[in-house]
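# nightly structure sweep
# worker-07 picked up a monomer target from the shared queue
# config: single-sequence mode, recycle default, output format = structure tokens
# input follows
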Amino acid sequence: MLRKICLLGVATSLLAFASVQAQSVDDLIAKHLDAVGGVEKLKSIQSMKITGTSAIPAMGVTASFTRTSMRPNMMRMDVQVQGQTMVQAYDGETAWQIVPFGGDPTPQAMPEAQAKYFRMQADLDGMLVDFKKKGHKIEFIGKEPVEEKDAYNLKVTMNTGDVTNIYLDTESYLQVKSRLVTPGPGGNNLEIDSYFSDFKTVDGMTMAHTITQNNPMQGKVETKMTEVQVNPEVDKSIFQMPSK
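# output follows
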């Protein structure tokens, strides 16, 4: 009888812990979404165009880019570097790219490893809005210091099976860091940390305008957004793969 009571107590404690953790995750995400402008505002955005620059100091490379997004799940990235333009796009079904640096300017299907990440980025709402309906699972890991300030660490297991960690500032609830685990050379996993700063409000939506990424393959990559357009007119044909 005593053993049954003990087991019942353990089971009750575990259920209570799971319930508290689920509530904590839901509360943290709700506060984060409110901090960036609210779910209603995010869902009112039908298209977005971001222009900016990316620099890789270790390689001596600076590029300018235009990122265009449109519902449902369409995205295109145009990157100008060293006098040439690379294009990567997803039309909701097909991910494709034009990479002219090797002398081939024809559009090609994007390799699946890249395509999977690109499809994830094409979600205009972001992975946290309606995450349960999308099939993502989120676990609260705890508090960790990020840039000498406390942040909540949320482990996100996406519906693809990929894992990323999102860090929310404990005061503002804005995302200040992410950690993406991705396959690397030789079958080893790479951890890519991105830090978000220079937050500005554009048309009622608060977003980082500087992203500093520590990439084991490239070193430090600093991206700065110079202009953000909300709900611009966009021709959806730009997302479709041209004929060769």
